[in-house]
Write a sequence for this structure.
């Protein structure tokens, strides 16, 4: 079978590495033409995943038509703010027989839609679409470290087919019937990870991180359930698993944003210093708006929103969380 991976960042490149043994041909679409040519020539993505050589059956290029024509499975790994734009450009070469798998962890700012909803709004009905999420650092996936993820769709047949197509010795794919929970978990954990980075950057200790992760999970659960997700999904790989990884691992882009904010750096300077996308920065404002519409309390996300968008000092934000009105833990 032929796999098209749309997005040549670290995650798309890592997926090309780990899934290459499962497909006869893997086509990696790269937005930057010069980078695409360099990857094809050197077999290394020197911008987003330096030092990792791509398997021989991976072809890098800049043409959507060449990437998509005849593909059996289409995996998208582009930032959330360009998903609609990219899928609109992809539309001439998409067919209903393709399996579409979204791996982007975020929410669309203008519509507050999940990524599979954005894709569906472009393709229309009749397309088979799933969301893949879970605790995944791209470099570890690409270099063969054991990794478990979850694939979610209302189409159980699609889940089963992609599970078998993707799973291998180092990459285990679990199935789920709850795309809402999986996608909300994948988006919200980035927001909490910014707070975790701030906490560690301020030297507040292990107790604080444990509390932040636990209460962050409660916020993720409240929002997801309000949007019709199953609460048990947030206890799984796309919820708790990804939350722990992103809050504690130094490869986490969102955690790094929090660490640098705690050191006093300006947000614009932090974001300009790397080509990597920290999805939590954009997701925070969307999460707050969604919570407001559904009457859900997200105190950690609200404080992160104030830090990111209104200049609230990071230390003050965490102090405000500690001084909130006392309540029962399960409320």
């Amino acid at each position: 079978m032929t796999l098209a991976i749309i997005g040549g960042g670290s995650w798309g490149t890592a997926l090309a590495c780990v899934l290459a043994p499962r497909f006869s041909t893997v086509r990696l679409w790269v937005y930057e033409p010069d980078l695409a040519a360099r990857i094809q020539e050197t077999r290394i993505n020197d911008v987003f995943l330096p030092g990792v050589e791509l398997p021989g059956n991976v072809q890098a290029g800049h043409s959507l038509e060449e990437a998509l024509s005849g593909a059996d499975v289409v995996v998208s790994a582009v930032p959330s703010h360009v998903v609609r734009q990219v899928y609109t450009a992809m539309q001439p070469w998409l067919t209903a027989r393709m399996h579409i798998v979204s791996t982007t962890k975020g929410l669309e700012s203008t519509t507050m839609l999940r990524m599979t909803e954005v894709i569906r709004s472009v393709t229309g009905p009749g397309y088979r679409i799933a969301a893949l999420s879970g605790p995944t650092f791209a470099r570890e996936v690409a270099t063969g470290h054991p990794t478990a993820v979850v694939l979610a769709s209302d189409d159980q047949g699609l889940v089963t087919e992609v599970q078998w197509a993707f799973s291998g010795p180092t990459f285990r794919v679990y199935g789920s019937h709850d795309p809402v929970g999986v996608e909300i978990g994948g988006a919200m954990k980035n927001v909490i990870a910014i707070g975790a980075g701030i906490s560690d950057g301020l030297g507040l200790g292990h107790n604080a991180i444990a509390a932040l992760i636990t209460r962050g999970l409660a916020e993720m659960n409240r929002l997801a359930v309000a949007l019709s997700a199953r609460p048990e999904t947030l206890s799984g790989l796309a919820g708790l698993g990804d939350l722990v990884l992103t809050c504690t691992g130094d490869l986490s882009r969102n955690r790094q944003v929090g660490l640098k904010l705690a050191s006093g750096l300006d947000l614009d300077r932090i974001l300009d210093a790397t080509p990597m996308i920290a999805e939590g920065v954009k997701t925070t404002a969307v999460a707050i708006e969604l919570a407001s519409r559904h009457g859900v309390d997200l105190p950690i996300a609200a404080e992160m929103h104030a830090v990111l968008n209104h200049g609230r000092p990071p230390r003050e934000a965490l102090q405000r969380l500690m001084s909130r009105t006392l309540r029962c833990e399960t409320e």
